[in-house]
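Renewal narrative, Specific Aim 1. Our central claim is that a sequence can be written position by position from structural information alone. The example that follows is taken directly from our test logs and has not been curated for this report. It begins with the structure tokens describing the chain, in the order in which they were read.
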């Protein structure tokens, strides 16, 4: 982002942006470039497997839940890309080869609603945790989304991508539980280190 660093003085001089505002603009630009490039890589990889439609369906389902629950956050571009690729590929492969009976799907998704309600959302360490009120709103929205998926599975017999809906939802819920455990373990270790006398 050296190009952005070069125009920072111009933005400060011409538009009177503060350092905080410049940092926010920089964050938005970096995030946009990062996420766009990841999407391009993912789309290319899944196109080579002739699974681009499944990828788009999986991404839509994932975003509808993850945006409100959070999950595992990785700090490096490559590790994040590889994790996302593995997650989405796993969901697509499971959707293609593993077909649990409807009652198991409904039972698992219902359990997922309770899991989200108890432990969600799990935010990144690099971002401030949402307020209690905002967290409750996020939990409610995520639980509502999964409930809508349950209704669709129950009532729409020929629902497109129904197996992708199920597997992406389940994998995201499992990821949320893993993220919660990782965060609690990290906080526990930090407390232990803070209490060790120097």
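The sequence written for that structure reads:
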């Amino acid at each position: 982002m050296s190009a952005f660093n070069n125009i920072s003085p111009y933005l400060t001089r011409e538009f009177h942006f503060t350092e905080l505002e410049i940092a926010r603009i920089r964050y938005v630009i970096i995030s946009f470039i990062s996420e766009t490039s990841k999407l391009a890589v993912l789309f290319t990889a899944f196109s080579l497997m002739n699974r681009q439609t499944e990828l788009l369906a999986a991404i839509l389902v994932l975003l509808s839940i993850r945006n409100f629950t959070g999950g595992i956050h990785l700090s490096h571009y490559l590790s994040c890309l590889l994790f996302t690729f593995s997650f989405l590929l796993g969901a697509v492969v499971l959707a293609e080869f593993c077909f649990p009976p409807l009652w198991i799907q409904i039972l698992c998704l219902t359990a997922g609603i309770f899991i989200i309600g108890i432990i969600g959302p799990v935010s990144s360490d690099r971002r401030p945790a949402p307020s209690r009120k905002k967290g409750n709103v996020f939990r409610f929205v995520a639980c509502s989304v999964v409930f809508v998926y349950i209704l669709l599975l129950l009532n729409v017999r020929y629902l497109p991508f129904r197996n992708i809906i199920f597997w992406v939802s389940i994998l995201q819920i499992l990821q949320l539980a893993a993220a919660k455990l990782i965060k609690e373990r990290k906080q526990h270790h930090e407390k232990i280190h803070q209490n060790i006398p120097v």
